[in-house]
Write a structure and sequence with these properties.
There is one protein chain. The protein is an alpha/beta fold. It is 20% helix and 31% strand. Helix 1 packs across helix 2. The radius of gyration is 17 Å and the shape is globular. It starts with a strand and ends in a 15-residue tail after the last helix.
């Protein structure tokens, strides 16, 4: 069984707890460099949070933003991500489509890789909104300032918000 943490970025969250099954803790990150949803500061934040907390798995949706964010964060952490997961076989084995979805490949992550990062197709998994988390609501906490400081713009930014 996994312990699940959830991170909300640039979300106005005034609540002190949320009922999200099976989430144990909700982390909120809100700092000016995250304002425009650029992958560079988000990936730096994710890498800093991983270095501070040592999670076993980091999952992101297989959306345009998730596919932009995850490889950048994985590169900062020296990890090979698994893309477009449609089935979880076990903690280290996943199924993903290949050949434009005409075939499925079973991918096993090497045992030497401690952190597993994957983008997941949310539509491939059942929606379980009615299931209540056992043990009460998950506390909402701010990401520590030392970790938020890592989301500062890079020294030589490759991407700039023009809007």
């Amino acid at each position: 069984m996994f312990t699940v943490f959830c991170m909300l970025i640039r979300v106005l969250c005034t609540c002190t707890s949320l009922r999200l099954a099976p989430v144990l803790q909700v982390l909120v990150a809100d700092t000016p460099p995250l304002e425009h949803q650029l992958a560079e500061p988000y990936s730096q934040l994710l890498a800093a949070l991983q270095q501070a907390q040592s999670y076993s798995h980091i999952l992101a949706p297989s959306s345009t933003f998730g596919k932009n964010l995850l490889p950048r964060a994985a590169a900062l952490l020296d990890v090979q991500p698994v893309a477009d997961v449609v089935q979880i076989v076990d903690q280290r084995t996943f199924v993903r489509p290949i050949y434009a979805g005409n075939g499925m490949a079973t991918v096993a992550v090497e045992p030497s890789q401690e952190l597993i990062m994957a983008s997941v197709r949310p539509t491939a998994f059942p929606h379980e909104s009615s299931r209540a988390r056992e043990g009460g609501p998950a506390p909402v906490e701010a990401v520590p300032d030392s970790v938020l400081a890592a989301a500062a713009p890079p020294d030589t930014p490759q991407t700039t918000w023009l809007g």
